[in-house]
């Protein structure tokens, strides 16, 4: 019997809620968000981020 692997995800909403703006900015830089958008997105609520960006944050292998 083959065990299936669980897909692990990064809890982006929890990180976003507890992080300071510069920590959010560092995360967005790691996601290769353009510099001019980082300042705008870092000050938004997590649920206000574009869905593709949230998906990339939650499933990115480098963040775990």
Structure description:
The structure is a single chain. By secondary structure, the protein is mainly α. The protein has one domain (18-63). It is built from 4 helices and no strands. The radius of gyration is 13 Å and the shape is elongated. The mean pLDDT is 88.
Tell the overall outline: elongated
Series of secondary-structure elements, N-terminal to C-terminal: HHHH
Number of strands: 0
Contiguous uncertain segments of 5+ residues: none
Task: Supply the helix-strand structural class.
Answer: mainly alpha
For the record, the count of structural domains works out to: 1
Count the DSSP helices: 4
% residues in beta strands: under 5%
Could you give the distance between the termini? 28 Å
CA radius of gyration is 13 Å
Helix content: 40-55%
Profile the largest sheet: none
Features:
64 residues; mainly alpha; 53% helix; 0% strand; elongated
Explain briefly what this protein structure is.
The chain is built from four helices and no strands. It has helices at residues 12-18, 21-30, 35-42, 51-59.
Topology:
Elements: H1 12-18, H2 21-30, H3 35-42, H4 51-59
């Amino acid at each position: 019997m083959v065990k299936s692997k669980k897909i692990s995800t990064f809890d982006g909403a929890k990180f976003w809620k507890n992080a300071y703006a510069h920590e959010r900015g560092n995360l967005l830089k790691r996601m290769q968000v353009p510099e001019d958008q980082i300042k705008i997105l870092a000050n938004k609520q997590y649920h206000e981020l574009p869905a593709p960006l949230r998906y990339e944050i939650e499933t990115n292998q480098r963040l775990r």
